[in-house]
Design a protein that fits this description.
There is one protein chain. It is built from seven helices and nine strands. The protein is an alpha+beta fold. The strands form three sheets. It has a four-stranded mixed β-sheet with strand order 3-7-6-5. Strands 2-4-8 form a three-stranded antiparallel β-sheet, sandwiched between helices. Strands 1-9 form a two-stranded antiparallel ribbon. Helix 3 runs antiparallel to helix 5. The longest helix is centred in the C-terminal third of the chain and has 12 residues. The chain is globular and about 50 Å long.
């Protein structure tokens, strides 16, 4: 009996899934800022005028990836961690119009097509390793969504519904971890479940 050829390898998309705290209408993303920007944003529930709306801004649905990025709110200019609740309508539109931040042969016809799509896209996506409680990399990937141009302005002034300062939560969890109380730390983590984004072939997911 002839050998049966092995089936195709599981696509990278199997490891790319958006996990987030979300409701029927909203999704929570995280960012970290210097207190001069983060504190007014949390106090007013909106980004202040000093927040540069023309710059690309990166949002992260994963709390632990945010902790990895900001070092549990200890890195310079990242001492204030914000949980930003945004509309799913805006989030879904950004995903639909986003482009991968890097070229992937399985997604793009060629490098030139990717570069053209990237130039035109108001958002870009990176899939970075998700992190465990101790911020070690996990096999599956976490979404980082970069917003620019009109998408950045819409995020700040239309999609954002509420802003909370979760720096005390980050510090409490970090303190429990340093004390060896992993179970207690895990209990405080925001509940993040798979986000129903549907198929995202243009993002390799």
């Amino acid at each position: 009996m002839p050998d049966v050829p092995a089936g195709p390898r599981a696509p990278a998309a199997a490891h790319r899934r958006i996990r987030a705290a979300h409701t029927a209408d909203t999704v929570t993303v995280y960012q970290a800022y210097a207190p001069r920007l983060g504190l007014p944003a949390a106090r007013e529930g909106r980004f202040p005028d000093a927040w540069k709306r023309e710059r690309m801004t990166w949002i992260k649905p994963s709390f632990l990836w945010m902790m990895y990025r900001c070092g549990w709110a200890t890195k310079a200019d990242q001492e204030t961690v914000l949980a930003i609740e945004i509309s799913r309508e805006g989030f879904d539109r950004a995903l639909a119009e986003a482009c991968l931040s890097h070229y992937e042969p399985a997604v793009h016809p060629d490098r030139a097509a990717w570069q053209e799509a990237l130039r035109a896209a108001p958002a870009r996506v990176q899939w970075d390793p998700e992190r465990d409680l101790h911020l070690n990399p996990l096999p599956h990937r976490s979404l980082q969504l970069g917003l620019a141009g009109w998408a950045s302005r819409a995020y700040a002034d239309a999609w954002t519904l509420s802003i909370r300062d979760v720096t005390p939560l980050a510090r409490e969890i970090h303190g429990l971890l340093r004390a060896g109380e992993d179970a207690a730390a895990r209990e405080l983590l925001p509940v993040e479940t798979p986000y129903p984004a549907g198929s995202l072939p243009h993002l390799g997911a």
